[in-house]
């Protein structure tokens, strides 16, 4: 849940494109950071480096020339972590003398202050649905804010094509022409009105080119237990998780387990280098359209990464965001359980159930052969099959 919500907590503010004659600067105070430590300032939209600064006596300074304000950036150091900051054309300060680097106090930016206020409000909301509704209302109430365009570029796949088109149509021309607006326009062309896939549903097939420009389909792995993994070379949590994923793959690949990894990169060289450096020896695909426009991510309503979907041998979704020991335990259960033989025929779907299957009624009673035959022949019951537990429960229609 925390990964699903993390993208929501960085959103929202009321601001404009207005500029004034004051200059931007960011004065930083830190603690216990060695002299010579380099801090990078990265544009969140383009993921490109904007500037760098060197820490000296636990202080640093940025006086970067920036064309448009406010702008969302990330202050980054591999050892210290990251801090997302909305920069404004003001004298700003960064203070981590009493907090961790990622929890530093920022002053001088109304946008950044409001993000903090709204983040606190969102924590008070009880459900994911309430948080989504809150985001939608913000965009409706602030169609001229650049933050509305920013939010919609992230939330469009959650809102759906119809609602997102409606929200976008009411935005200012300035918002529509912004980089966020361009992303939304592109997104709406590919967006569908399918709901987010749920556990128990059939997977959605798609094709995409691998690193060798060869078209690959998810359905190429039919009959395997497949982890559909969404990641990117620039995603620090993804890269941190990769060693665990490598161990899991090596442990279960001989038992019929495969990984189909979709990268949300837009830079092929970075993608390929990450695959090699992390030793990711499974199937990789990407359309190199980035995190906002990747067609597979839109199809599966992927809003943050890393995220994964576990698909059983018969193509049904049986888990989401399973990692580490949770993933290993689930795979141990699945790969040791008897599989069903599912075949598509002209007259319908035929399912061959293994003789070892345990049949029960709705109350959990194990059925004898005669009881099972009587109930099936009555045509008043439907079997609900659990391949992991190797059980079939007859439920009354």
Automatic annotation (TrEMBL):
Swiss-Prot/TrEMBL keywords: Cytochrome c-type biogenesis, Disulfide bond, Redox-active center
Biological processes annotated in GO: cytochrome complex assembly
Residues annotated as domain Thioredoxin: 197-340
Subcellular location: Cell envelope
UniProt xrefs under CDD domains: TlpA_like_family
Transmembrane segments: none
GO cellular component labels: cell envelope
Gene3D superfamilies: Glutaredoxin (3.40.30.10)
Signal peptide: none
A Gene Ontology molecular function term of the record: antioxidant activity
Protein name per the record: Thioredoxin domain-containing protein
């Amino acid at each position: 849940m925390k990964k699903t919500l993390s993208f929501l907590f960085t959103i929202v503010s009321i601001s404009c494109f207005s500029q004034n004659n004051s200059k931007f600067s960011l004065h930083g105070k830190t603690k216990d950071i060695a002299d010579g430590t380099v801090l990078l300032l990265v544009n969140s939209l383009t993921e490109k480096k904007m500037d760098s600064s060197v820490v000296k006596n636990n202080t640093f300074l940025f006086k970067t020339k920036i064309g448009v304000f406010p702008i969302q950036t990330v202050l980054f150091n591999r050892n210290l972590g990251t801090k997302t900051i909305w920069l404004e054309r003001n004298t700003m300060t960064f203070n981590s003398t009493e907090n961790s680097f990622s929890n530093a106090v920022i002053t001088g930016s109304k946008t950044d202050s409001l993000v903090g206020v709204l983040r606190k409000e969102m924590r008070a909301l009880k459900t994911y649905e309430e948080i989504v509704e809150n985001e939608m209302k913000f965009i409706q109430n602030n169609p001229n804010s650049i933050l509305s365009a920013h939010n919609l570029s992230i939330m469009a796949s959650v809102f759906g094509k119809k609602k997102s088109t409606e929200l976008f149509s009411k935005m200012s021309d300035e918002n529509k022409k912004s980089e966020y607006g361009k992303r939304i326009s592109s997104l709406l062309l590919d967006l569908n009105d399918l709901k987010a896939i749920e556990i128990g549903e059939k997977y959605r097939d798609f094709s995409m080119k691998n690193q060798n420009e060869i078209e690959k389909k998810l359905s190429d792995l039919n009959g395997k237990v497949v982890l559909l993994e969404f990641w990117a070379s620039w995603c620090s949590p993804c890269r941190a998780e990769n060693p665990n994923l490598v161990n899991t793959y090596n442990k279960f690949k001989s038992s019929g387990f495969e990984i189909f990894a979709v990268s949300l990169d837009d830079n092929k060289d970075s993608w390929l280098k990450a695959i090699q450096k992390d030793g990711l020896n499974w199937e990789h695909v990407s359309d190199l359209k980035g995190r906002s426009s990747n067609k597979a991510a839109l199809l599966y309503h992927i809003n943050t990464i890393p995220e994964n979907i576990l698909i059983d041998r018969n193509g049904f979704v049986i888990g989401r965001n399973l990692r580490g020991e949770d993933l290993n335990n689930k795979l141990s259960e699945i790969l040791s359980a008897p599989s069903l033989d599912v075949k598509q025929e002209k007259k319908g779907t035929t399912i061959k159930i293994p003789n070892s299957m345990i049949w029960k009624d709705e109350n959990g009673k194990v059925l004898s052969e005669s009881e099972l035959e009587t109930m099936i022949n009555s045509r008043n019951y439907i079997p609900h099959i659990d391949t992991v537990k190797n059980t079939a429960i007859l439920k009354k229609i």
